[in-house]
Every structure is written in C-alpha cells, then in structure tokens.
Here is the input.
Amino acid sequence: MWLSKQVKPVSPTADADLGVTTIAGNGTGVITRGEVRSLPVYGPGGYIWLPGSGEEVLVIKGGPGGEEQCVAGARQSATPKEMLPGEVYLYGPVGNAVYLKKDGTVELQGTISIKGELVVNGEAYKPCRCEGGLT
Here is the structure.
C-alpha cells in the first residue's frame, strides 16, 4: 500500500500547444516547450499555406505520448468589420485578398493575373481591339 503513495503521478500532457515558428516553409520548426523541426503543416482541403518565421501557430500532438506533432493553423488576423458568419476571407502578406461573401459577391484585392481562359457569362472573353481605346 505504501508503494502506491510513493509512485510519482504522470504529468498530464496537452493535446495542443501554441508555438512560435523558428523555421519557415516546408521544413517548419516550432518552439512550444522546446523546439521541434520538420513538422508537417495541415490545413483545410484545397488550401496551401506555409507559416512564416515568428508566427504564432497551433501545434497538435498525437500518437503515444504526444510525440507525433503537426502545425494546424495560425492566429487569425483582424476580421473585416462587415464579415458575416459563413463568409471566407483569404489574405496574403502584402494586402492582396479574396473575399467570398454570402450574397455571392467575390471581391479581389491586389494585382490580378489570369492564367488560362477568362469566361464571362459563359462566353470566352475577347478584349476589344478597337481604335481609340475600349468601347
């Protein structure tokens, strides 16, 4: 009986931690309680993101003892004032953004570069080659 009182209880481990990235890009390194390198980065389907150095990120721990870890996301920037639940706002590091609104509006901000065919109302877009400018 006295032995059971002598056994040190196991310290609980967190299933997730807030960390700061030390290495940016594909070989992401993060400091939580210590530094871990080469963590995989996970995100929603169809979305690719590589955290920058010094970003606060969410690190999820799994596997036996929590030794398998991954970066799951970063702290959000300020939400646009008019943003409604269900809307999506994707933003980049220099003010470029794609805003998908509930009313079906898509707002694009930044320099827009289209690669491929541009279709407007089901018709391939053909710029006007008129003399004197566009009509």
